[in-house]
Amino acid sequence: MNIVVPYTRVHPDTWAALWDLNPRYVDTSGDVEAYWRLLCELWARGETFIIVEHDIVPGPGTLQAMWDCEQPWCAYPYPVGTPWDTPCLGCSKFDARLMEWFPNLMEKVGSTYLGYYDGERIEGRHWFRMDMAVSLWLSRWLARKRVMAPENYEFGWTAVHKHPEGMVEHRHVYACT
Fold first, then answer.
1. Residue 55, pLDDT above cutoff 70
2. CATH of the domain at 123
3. Is 177 contained in some domain?
4. Who is most buried in 82, 98, 114, 158, counting CB within 10 A?
5. Domain-located, residue 176
6. E strands of 8-153, at which residues?
7. What is the pTM of this model?
8. How far is residue 114's CA from residue 93's CA, in Å, rounded to a whole number?
């Protein structure tokens, strides 16, 4: 499995859950666009990969099930405290077919205007809403290609294949050291 862990600070439970899977840990703490540049690099390689963010704890068998899934774009949902159902990048798989079908996805993501964050205008290159830009473009393109049909959720459309809830945990709280 090609597992990539973008991090600013890895949760100890994330380390423990992944210790025997040989993931690639990539420090994205340098600036708000480092995560986007990592996705650009992964996209350019054209190989299937799984993202597990630094505060996500996948349960046993979770990543293997995702890796074995035939769908080109998969994610495990987890609560993030928002009312919309946009798939987050926290635990998601991107199949090599996506990179072949949509080679300029990350360029589109990077130039998508997404509003303001802390008074700053942000585009899809900013880590804070990059997942929304990825979802926007992939959902549109997969629907046009008739590969995956978008489903209507209360706050929008998405074409991601959702695996069962409860298989990953989102941990924002770190023990004091």
1. yes
2. 3.90.550
3. no
4. 158
5. no
6. 24-27, 49-52, 56-58, 73-75, 91-94, 113-117, 120-123, 151-153
7. 0.82
8. 23
